[in-house]
Design a protein that fits this description.
Helices cover 38% and strands 14% of the residues. The chain has a 4-stranded parallel beta sheet with strand order 1-4-2-3, with helices on one face. It has one domain (5-115). By secondary structure, the chain is an alpha/beta fold. It has helices at residues 34-37, 50-56, 63-75, 78-88, 106-115, and strands at residues 5-9, 20-23, 41-42, 93-97. The radius of gyration is 13 Å and the shape is globular. It comes from Mesorhizobium caraganae. Pfam families: DUF488-N3i (PF22752). This is DUF488 domain-containing protein.
Length: 118
């Protein structure tokens, strides 16, 4: 799909080209103030369920299964997905997450879901 979407850790300072900054974690990241986050939206309803997040535990061996299970959750979460797609229709969006792993986290999985690559 043709939309401008990037992913960054919320611990990185905002960049001028971030566009709309959307936190996609259910839990607010430690040590980050609301002001420094410079969010457009905290879309916690699009984050994985607590059960799925705890099951995944950022274990690399569970990444493929996590993406599948998260996609099923997203399929059943039309309102939050539609809200995010609405923002994407207005220009660049940067999805923000708090996890340490930059390659295997819910924001990366969400991008794959939105682009239809999962």
């Amino acid at each position: 799909m043709g939309f401008d979407l990037t992913v960054r850790r919320i611990y990185e300072p905002p960049a001028p080209d971030d566009g709309r900054r959307v936190l996609v974690d259910r839990i607010w990241p430690r040590g980050v103030s609301k002001e420094s986050a410079a969010l457009t939206l905290w879309l916690k309803d699009i984050a994985p369920s607590d059960e799925l997040r705890k099951w995944f535990g950022h274990e690399p061996a569970r990444w493929a299964e996590f993406r599948k299970r998260y996609a099923v959750e997203l399929d059943g979460n039309g309102e939050a997905v539609a809200q995010l797609r609405g923002l994407l229709g207005k220009g660049k969006v940067t999805l923000l997450y708090g996890a340490h792993d930059e390659a295997q986290n819910n924001a990366v999985a969400l991008v794959g879901y939105l682009r239809g690559t999962d």
